[in-house]
Amino acid sequence: MAKEKQQLTVFEEKRKTLIKKIIAVMGLVMIVAIAVVLAVMAFDKYKSEKYLESYGETALRVGSYDMDYGMYRCRYLNYRDEYIREYTENGVTDTAALDSFIRACVADDARYTYAKISLAADYGYSLTSADVVAIADTYAEAMKDYCETNKMDFEETLAAGYMDEEIFTFSLRVMALEDVLRTALISDGGEIEDNDEKLLEIFKGDEMIHVKSVFIENDDGEDIEENRRIAEEVIEKYKGGTEFNKLIGNYSEDVYGDYYMTRGEKADAYDTAAFSLDDGEISDVVVAPDGFYVILRAAKDEEYIENNFETLKSQYQAVRLKEKIEARMNSFSVVETEFLRGLSYGEIE
């Protein structure tokens, strides 16, 4: 039953899926990570307004930022391609429900992306900063080289993701902006811990735990209650003496069923359940948007922590950065413009 699907953290997913989208010509679509292609260039107010005038209608107002329709359309259509099957039954798509869902997703992506731009501005960075542009240009060359090496047409690759080269450039600058923001936050005296001794103490303390989990995914057409029953069966077998590693191999649809995690790294339900357990304790069935988890909290291995310190350090700092971005994101409101409200599901093409 196991399938090779990795359940990524929100932060990791955003990074990974951007790369997949840009380099995939054969119909592959971008998923939740489409947030990274959201940002309009953070020029000063005059330049931003002039850009929006030349590019098209404003679609969203996010805090004090405006997002134009071209950018909005890109992620709207990617979400549509990703989720349309979930809203289609017997060949009929519930377009009203799908449209409402997509608009909510794009609004959240907009808030997250502009939060990064806003937070970076606090440290003196924008999407036109020289080091940001240099990093983005490096990413762009790598993408183009990949396409050339693999005999992919670059323009067709962008078109498959409803992008043009302008949106592609913006997306890479958002990635680069996040890179320099992270560097600023972990530098000496920064807001994210970078001292190795202090981090090692954190990793051996209560803020990082070792977990194992079985994931039962609700695939299209599957009986959700039957999947829940399977998750309950996992718990029964573990309590009956079956080793959890064997249960992972027999049941789990998450190829990473054994890992170390820091608080705030996973979705709320998973995070809450995992950190509420004691070593050796198993959770009840944990409900996720796309399936069910059974979580076992395992004892930490200090030797493993020391041998994998750099990986855990990067993981920990990434989560702390995500938290700071989300804190800023939560201060942003999103309002659709009259222009966007006037467009129906079928008119966004």
Which key phrases capture this entry?
349 residues; alpha+beta; Chitinase A, domain 3; 2 domains; 3-stranded antiparallel beta sheet; disordered N terminus
Describe the structure.
α3 packs across α4, α4 packs across α7 and α5 crosses α7. The chain folds into two domains: 205 residues, no CATH class; 107 residues, Chitinase A, domain 3 (Roll). The strands form three sheets. Strands 6-5-8-7 form a four-stranded antiparallel beta sheet, sandwiched between helices. It has a three-stranded antiparallel beta sheet with strand order 2-1-9. β3 and β4 form a beta hairpin. It has 349 residues and is an alpha+beta fold.
Give the % helix.
40-55%
How far apart the termini lie comes to 37 Å
Rg to the nearest angstrom?
Answer: 22 Å
Strand order in the largest sheet: 6-5-8-7
Overall 3D geometry?
globular
Q: How many separate structural domains? A: 2
**Number of separate helices:** 14
Low-confidence parts lasting 5 or more residues at pLDDT below 50? Answer: 1-55
In N-to-C order, the SSE pattern is HHEEHEEHHHHHEHHEHEEHHEH
**DSSP strand tally:** 9
Report strand %. Answer: 5-15%
Sheet of most strands? 4 strands, antiparallel
- Provide mean pLDDT, rounded: 84
Structural class: alpha+beta
Short summary of the structure?
The chain is an alpha+beta fold. The protein contains 14 helices and 9 strands. The protein has helices spanning 10-23, 45-55, 69-83, 95-122, 130-149, 154-160, 165-186, 196-204, 224-239, 244-251, 268-276, 302-307, 309-329, 338-341, and strands at residues 58-62, 65-68, 88-89, 92-93, 208-217, 258-262, 286-288, 291-298, 334-336.
